C-alpha cells in the first residue's frame, strides 16, 4: 500500500527539482536539493538521478515491509532564470530548518513556479544594453554603440517572436544572428563612421550560451559526465547556429556586394 505522506514528500521534492532544472540549475544542485528535502521528512534512503531532460527519484523508508516509491519526471523547455533557482535555494533552507509542512511547501513552490519574470520591456532594454556595451569592449565607436543597441534590440525581439512558436534553439539562434548581421551590414554601408564588426559581435553576444557552458563544466567537475556532455553539446550546437547565421549573411553580402540594400 502506498504511503500518502511518502508520496507527498516525493512530489514536493520532485517539484522543487523540476523548477530548478527548468531554469538552468546545475545537476548537483538539483540532486542535493531533492535529497535535503526528503531527509528533512525523515526519508533517509533517497536515491536521485537527474539529467537535463529528466529526474528519477526513489524513496525507501528502510523497513523490511516498506515498499520503495519511485517517480520519474520528464523535463521540457529548459530556460535560464537564476532568480527562481535562488528562490528554491531559500525555500530548501527554510523547509529543512523550520516546521514548514509539506502542503505549505507545495503552495510555496507553486508560487515560485508561477512567479512572473521581469517585464518584457526591461528584458528588451537589458539585451540592447548588453549588445551596445560589448560593442564598446570590442573597439566600437559611439556610432557603433547606438547601432548595436538598436540591432540587439531588434534581434532580441525577433528571437522572442520565434520562441512564441516553439522554434527550436538552433533555428532561433541562426535566424536571430542572421537578422542582426544583416542590420549591422546595412548600417555600416549607410553610415561611413559605422563599423560592422563590433556591431555584429555585440549583437550576437546576447545569444551566446554562457550559462550552458558554465554548467557543463561544473557538471564535469562534479562527476556528472552524462549531463556535462549533454549540456556541452547543446552549447556547441547553439554556438554553431550563431556562427552559421552570421557567416551566411556575410558571405551573401560579399558575393552580392550589398546591392540588395
Report what the structure shows.
The structure is a single chain. This protein has 261 residues and is mainly alpha-helical. It folds into 2 domains: 4-113, no CATH class; 120-256, no CATH class. It is 68% helix and 8% strand. The mean pLDDT is 88.
Question: Which whole number gives the mean pLDDT?
Answer: 88
Radius of gyration: 23 Å
Tell me the number of helical segments per DSSP (H or I, 4 or more residues long).
10
Strand percentage, roughly?
Answer: 5-15%
Class based on secondary structure composition and strand pairing = mainly alpha
pLDDT under 50 segments (min length 5)?
none
**Helix content estimate:** 55-70%
What does the largest sheet look like? 3 strands, antiparallel
- Gap between N and C termini: 71 Å
* Number of beta strands: 3
Strand order of the largest sheet: 1-2-3
Shape: elongated
Topology:
Layout (H helix, E strand, L loop, with lengths): L3 H19 L4 H14 L4 E7 L2 E7 L8 E6 L7 H16 L4 H12 L6 H18 L4 H23 L4 H22 L5 H9 L5 H12 L3 H32 L5
Antiparallel strand pairs: 1-2, 2-3
